[in-house]
Write a structure and sequence with these properties.
This protein is mainly alpha-helical. Among the domains are: 46 residues, no CATH class; 181 residues, no CATH class. It has 11 helices and 8 strands. The chain has a two-stranded antiparallel sheet with strand order 1-2. A hairpin with a 5-residue loop joins strand 7 and strand 8. The protein is globular. The termini are far apart.
């Protein structure tokens, strides 16, 4: 069983690494580590190759392109092809319920619908025509979002909770983040699509992980297949269940994906429940007003602590995500 032990150890290391990066992302340690690593690499890699790498990274992460959309669809297609070709057929022979086997396909259809909506829908672009009405939606906290701020690129006054996206080159109302996987900003008007997309993607990965695990347990453990061995062409002793390596690696991939997506889904649900955006959460550790570069104040002025003034209870917060127009009308009436 050395193969499985090493494989599980590999998955554990990947998950621990991702969790560590998430924990350190709001500190200066990660930035210092990246800066130091970049300096070491710059001494090794030739200058021409460095320029090429910078151009590729700039294209991938700082310009709108469909690279990650195609990668997303390719990975999703490969996983579902393996599930259909291997797991689905074997599970039918073993008498699995057809309802459980078809559940990943139902989730796939829903996921692709909301994936498309996340890609093509307007996230809440602020224009000169709608800027005045959007200025009335959220209260300015005078710390993270001061009044009378103007975007010098779009030439509009910036409503509270908005931000100019350098990738899309537009100001977005209730800006959350720019997602390369959907090649679009996530804002007030498409946050609900993105949340359902993320939910169904996590559910589909978890469902395939459960079905594949039950299948392997029934095939390997119940039938004692894990004890069976054979001698390969080179005379090496191998375990018989490793003749299904694609299923084993697909299971490892969807299990890892389930944990990563599940963690990000929990984080996104936390932000929705507390009426925060990713941009606000990331900037929230800048507790003092002098950290805000656009806020001018005398040196003797007292620093102001940032507080989330937009949370009004769980159901009201969720209403802003799923019914943004109705929530904005209710705020205007109040």
């Amino acid at each position: 069983m050395d193969f499985l032990v090493l494989f599980l150890f590999y998955l554990a290391l990947v998950l621990i690494g991702v969790v560590t990066i998430c924990i350190c992302s709001k500190t200066h340690y990660l930035r210092g580590l990246i800066r130091g690593g970049a300096q070491v690499i710059s001494c090794i890699i030739p200058e021409c190759l460095q320029r090429a790498i910078r151009k590729v990274l700039h294209y991938l992460f700082h310009t709108r392109n469909h690279t990650f959309i195609m990668l997303h669809l390719l990975l999703q297609g490969m996983v579902y092809a393996e599930y259909t070709w291997e797991v689905f057929g074997y599970c039918q022979e073993l008498g699995f319920s057809l309802h459980y086997l078809l559940l990943p396909y139902l989730l796939l259809v829903i996921n692709l619908v909301f994936f498309t909506l996340s890609c093509v829908s307007n996230p809440g672009t602020i224009t000169k025509a709608n800027a005045f009405s959007l200025l009335q939606v959220y209260e300015f906290d005078e710390v993270m979002f001061p009044k009378n701020m103007k975007c010098f690129t779009c030439h509009v006054r910036k409503p509270a909770r908005s931000k100019h996206c350098r990738v899309c080159n537009r100001c977005v109302h209730r800006f959350d983040h720019h997602c390369v996987w959907v090649n679009n900003c996530i804002g007030a008007w498409n946050a609900r699509y993105f949340l359902i997309y993320l939910l169904t993607l996590t559910a589909s990965a978890a469902t395939m992980a459960v079905v594949s695990t039950v299948f392997l347990v029934q095939l390997v453990v119940v039938s004692d297949l894990y004890l069976e061995t054979y001698v390969d062409d080179l005379g090496h002793l191998q375990y018989l269940f490793l003749t299904l390596p694609r299923i084993v690696f697909m299971l490892g991939f969807v299990v890892m994906l389930s944990f990563l997506l599940g963690g990000y889904l929990c984080f996104t649900l936390y932000l929705a429940a507390t009426n925060q955006t990713t941009n606000e959460w990331y900037r929230g550790d800048r507790a003092w007003c002098h950290h805000c570069p656009h806020v001018a104040r005398p040196p003797s002025a007292e620093p102001q602590v940032y507080r989330n003034i937009h949370s009004h209870g769980l159901w009201s917060n969720l209403g802003e995500i799923f019914l943004p127009a109705a929530a904005h009308c209710a705020k205007k009436m109040n």
